[in-house]
User: What shape does this take?
Amino acid sequence: MIDALLENSEALSSEFSRIFEYGPFDDSKRLHASWIMCMVALEHSNSLRQLAMCGNYTSAICIIRSQFEALTRAAWLFYAASDQKVDNTFSTLSELSQSADQKPNNAEMIRALEGKAPAQAVAMFSEFRDVQWKGLNSYVHGGIHALQRHGSGYPVQLVEEIIKSSNGLLTMTAMMAAILTGNEMIVKDIARIQHRHKDCLPDLLAY
Assistant: This one.
């Protein structure tokens, strides 16, 4: 079952990856920064599937948090970040710029999106964080979740949920990237792609 889900997930990713052949609709720093973070989130989703194929489920779960954070930052950079914050993302890497990059944190970015990004997207960000964040932190930091699951093994249902959750984030990333292209036809095609691959998506997105 997991192999079939991964195969279907690859097909979903292949369709969404085509969006990244277009690029953002202008060369502003804001769009460019958001686009890059969408590509980072896309890379994380690809990496998660590769880890799952190898049976490295603990590492795969850790990647979901990075995927979520990259996607959140992509949305924040486009909808809510100040011009100064956007400029900071292109400053030369240094200890000072690295420190400045720590704020806002993930929760603060989601709050900043309220009233600026589409309400459905903000709700999905908030729900994902409310439900998943503590457990993901436990895996990332070598907590009890990582210890017990890695020690006793991963149930098939849990692995499937991991992959589908990642696919859900991938779908949101594709929508964000589609918006950045400025092409309404690409934006409208997201729903059709979702419907074709609904079996590998969370129930919330499988329509």
